Amino acid sequence: GENVEQHPSTLSVQEGDSAVIKCTYSDSASNYFPWYKQELGKRPQLIIDIRSNVGEKKDQRIAVTLNKTAKHFSLHITETQPEDSAVYFCAASGGGKLTFGQGTILTVHP
Amino acid sequence: DTAVSQTPKYLVTQMGNDKSIKCEQNLGHDTMYWYKQDSKKFLKIMFSYNNKELIINETVPNRFSPKSPDKAHLNLHINSLELGDSAVYFCASSPPYFQGARVYYGYTFGSGTRLTVV
User: A42 CB near a chain B CB, below 8 Å?
Assistant: First the structure.
């Protein structure tokens, strides 16, 4: 089955800096890669996703890149703000269930 | 106007008890899931139902039994609760895996049920 590895497990940045979270996946059949943000005590919420026929996608301060050959994808957050502090999960799917990475605790210091 | 709603939000119970968690979605999605989030925040799939039929059953103890009376509801019953069952359980839903040109969509999660077994 699919295995998703996510790094780093924790990330601490200053407000205004950029943050990058990286994930690798094992199943070459996976073709859908969403990212979720989970604030403390809340549900995971979809923030951006990318499909395998696209190499990069951007939504305001958030961007995701995908390298299918290397089987890795990354989340980039620019101009970070304290409200970006949360746990971020990557996930991969080839049809059916999403397999999640282990999560990254992002802390943005004012 | 909650899209995916779970009840209860908190559940504290003693070892050995039997409990149920209910989930309902009003998005018209065909597929529903149960995920378990442990103390290290890892999200692991337990079950998936597509239009009332079980399609994914990961390695979960038989004490856990999902039931889907219709495609808008997916409940989780847990027998003989153990300390290790303490976690946050999330229900989620998504459109069908295949729509037209094999487009996949992300999940919409419920607010979670924090289960504490004492």
Answer: yes
